[in-house]
Amino acid sequence: MQMIDRPVVALVVAAGSGSRLGGEVPKALVQIDGRPLVRWSVEAMVAGGCQRVVVVVAAPLVDDFRAALAGVSVPLQIVVGGARRQDSVANGLAAAGEQGIVLVHDAARPFVPVDVVRSVHEAVAQGAACVIPVVPVIDSIRRARGVSSHVVDRSELVAVQTPQGFDLATLRESHEQAALQGLEVTDDAAVCEAAGHPVLLVAGAREAMKVTEPFDIHVANAIATQRRQMAANAFQENP
């Protein structure tokens, strides 16, 4: 693994309501195998080499998130989010420091593998301004227009995941430009791209699934249970 000579900060976005999940608590606080989803996501970022974490949350839930994240092994700051995702990221960036590498991660992706996190921040350390993990699209895709549709060539398509990695100053400046232009985007790579910065793709992983709908909770619990069993077996073999 390449040594990183700049601080690596994780900015975990957890301010959404998770309305499609339909739970009694916001999505990031839903329990996965006995731990809040946001805890899984934060600890995945720490395991991947992040030395500090900023978590962006909705204002009424600061105390709930503080309790959910008590005892995390690196310095952690909780910041109140904004009306839109890009507003929440901008608020988080204000707390992330002046220089270094920032990895923006959706709290809804709790199982991103360590090697994906590392490959993203190592690519930024090597000079890339914007790095995103992607996986091939495996389903057949059709573009629907009213009652008609046509097939889209999936060989040129990839699905975008997080964490997305950036030079911190570059991402902050890109967000400032987007705000001045009234630009609304769905992810931070698009913010950088709009500011003229190229986007580098690295390999993502199917494990970095996004928890969005009730079915995803069942999948996430199955993954978490399997991980726990594998860790227990490894301990028994090497106590």
What are the main properties of this structure?
Spore Coat Polysaccharide Biosynthesis Protein SpsA, Chain A, 7 helices, alpha/beta, 239 residues, two-stranded antiparallel sheet
Number of structurally distinct domains:
1
Rg over CA atoms: 18 Å
CATH architecture: Alpha-Beta Complex
Please provide the ordered H/E string of secondary-structure elements. EEEHEHEHEHEEEEEHHEH
The backbone outline, from C-alpha atoms, is globular
Indicate the CATH topology.
Spore Coat Polysaccharide Biosynthesis Protein SpsA, Chain A
Structural class: alpha/beta
Largest sheet: 8 strands, mixed
Low-confidence stretches: none
Distance between the termini: 27 Å
User: What is the CATH C-level name?
Assistant: Alpha Beta
**Strand percentage, roughly?**
15-25%
Full CATH superfamily name: Spore Coat Polysaccharide Biosynthesis Protein SpsA, Chain A
Number of extended strands: 12
Counted by DSSP, the helix tally is: 7
Can you give the helix content as a percent range? 25-40%
Please tell me the overall pLDDT.
Answer: 92
